[in-house]
Write a structure and sequence with these properties.
57% of the residues lie in helices and 21% in strands. A two-stranded antiparallel ribbon has the order 1-2. The N and C termini lie far apart (77 Å). It has one domain. With 75 residues, the protein is an alpha+beta fold. It is elongated and about 75 Å long. The chain is built from two helices and two strands.
């Protein structure tokens, strides 16, 4: 019984660390999404949304990558 009492703080510390780490990931994801929206040039790039474990993440992807070049590329 005494051994279980000694291990309890370790379990509490691990649980608190995981909870705080998860909340930090959500906050960082929100900050990164705000930066992508503010800095992505809509003439050349398109914002795409991805579902992740911490919510939706936004990415700035070139329109040429998504849709291909405007005209056929000749060799």
């Amino acid at each position: 019984m005494n051994r279980h009492r000694e291990q309890l703080p370790a379990y509490v510390g691990i649980t608190l660390g995981m909870g705080i780490g998860g909340l930090l990931c959500v906050g960082l994801n929100k900050a990164i999404n705000a930066r992508v929206i503010a800095t992505c040039d809509s003439k050349l790039y398109q914002i795409v949304s991805l579902k992740t474990a911490v919510g939706e993440s936004y990415g700035c992807v070139s329109k040429m990558v998504l849709h291909g070049p405007a005209a056929a590329i000749k060799p």
